[in-house]
What does this fold into?
Amino acid sequence: MKKNSQYILTLEPLTLARIGKIISNNEHIVLGQDCINRVKVNREYLEAKISQDNKTIYGINTGFGSLCNTIIPQKGLEDLQRNLVLSHSCGTGLVIPQHIAKIVLLLKIKNLSLGYSGVRVSLVERLLKMYNADMIPELFEMGSLGASGDLAPLAHLAATMLGEGYVYHNGERISAQTGLDRLGVDQFVLGAKEGLALLNGTQFSTGYALHEVLEANRLLSLANYTAVMSMDAFMCSVDPLDADIHRVRNQRGQINVAAEIRGLLQGTQLAGHGKYSVQDPYSFRCVPQVHGASNDAITYVSDIVEREINAVTDNPNVFDEEDKILSGGNFHAQPIALALDFLAIALSELGSISERRTYVLLGANRELPAFLIDDVGLNSGMMILQYTAASIASQNKQLCTPASVDSIISCNGQEDHVSMAANAGTKCYRVLQNLKSLIAIELILAAQAKDFRKGMKSGSKIESMHASFRSTVPFIKSDMYIKNLIVGAEEFVEKWNA
It folds into this structure.
C-alpha cells in the first residue's frame, strides 16, 4: 500500500476519526517539534535525578514486580532494561494480525511521545522508523494479564529493537536482526527506564479495542442497510419506524437507527406496501431498539478508547515540571477490559438478530418460496445457510462470557488484581469476525428474497447496494457449491463503506 500523505504527531489528542485515517491511508508519521521538546526535557530531568539522588525509584534502579525492593547499582541499569525485555518475551498462541500489531506500534509511539515516560527521543524515533517502514513486530495473542501493562506482547515488540524475535516486512516473516539490517540500523541499546516504558502500557489491549470499535461503527451501518434489504424483501410494515414511537422512548441510539432506516426506505415499493400481518416478527419490528442499543454501546466504547489512545499508561510516570517521579497504576487496563466485554455483547446482538431474520426469510412466508429457491425439494436452496448462521451466533454468545470479571494473582502476590483486557480484546476480535460472516449470510438471503419481488424496487441506496452485491454474488436458480457465495459475500462485507 502506498503512503498517501504525512501526519505530524503532536501533543494534541488523536480522535478516533483521525487515527482511522492514519491507519486506512497508511500515512507516514513524523514526530512534531513539540513532542521532541517535551520528550527531551523529560529525559534530561530523569537523568539528572538518577545521577544526583540516592533515592530508590521503581524500575529505574530497582527490580520489577515483587523484586521492587532489590536495588540495582548504577553500572547495571542498562543490563536491567535489556534483561527485562528478554525475560518478559514469553507470549504464546496465535500470531496476531499484522494490521493490529501495527496499530499497537502506533499507540506505543503516541504514548511515549507525550513526555511522561522518561525515554530518549531516539527511542521514539526508532519506533517511528519501524512503523514507517512497515516493519511489524511479531506479537502473540496469549501472555498479557492486562495489568502491569500488556507485558508479554509489548516485550516482543521491544525485543525486535534488540534484534530478537521476528518481524513482518512486506508480508515476509524475517528475523528481527534481518529487519534491523534492512533498516540500516544497529540493535538499540536501552537506557535507564526505557525497557520498562516500552513494556508498561495498555497498547496491546487498546490496539485491539481501536480496531474493533472502528470496525464496529462501520458494521453497525452495514447491519442497518442489510436489515432494510430484509425488511423490503419481507414487505414489512413501516409503522414501527414512526419517529413518534422512538421520541417517547428517548433512547439516542434507537432514535438514530430509526431515522437512518426511514431514510434508506424512502422511495421503496416494498416495505410498507404489503398487508401480510398486523405486526411483523421482532427481528424486523424491533431493529431500531436492538441495533440502537448496540449503537449506544459502541458510542460508549468509542469514548473510552479515544481517551485511552491519548493516555499515559506506563509506570512510573515522570513529572519534570512538578519535580516528581510517581509509581501508580495507569497500566491497569480495567477501563478497556470492561469496554471490550461490553462491545463484544453489542456486536453479538447485531449478529443474533441478523440470524433470526435469515430464519424468517427462509420460512415460505409472504409469497416467498421455501428456502428461497424454485423447485424446492429437488433443490435445498438456502436451507443450510441458516444452520451456519445459527452455529456462528451460538459461538458468539459463548464468547461473550466477560473476561474482565476474572483475575488471577501473579508476581508472588504483588500483582493481586488484573484486568484480563488482552483476553477481552482477542475474543472480541473473534466476535467481530463472526459478525461479518453473519451479515454476509443475511445479505445473501435478503438479496435472493428481494429478487423474488420482481418489478418492485427498494429505495435508491438499497438498490445501489443490491446492484453492487450482485456484481459479486449472483442470484441462485438451483443448488450450487454454496461456499462460493459465502466467500463472495464476506469479501463484500470486508470492503463495504456507506
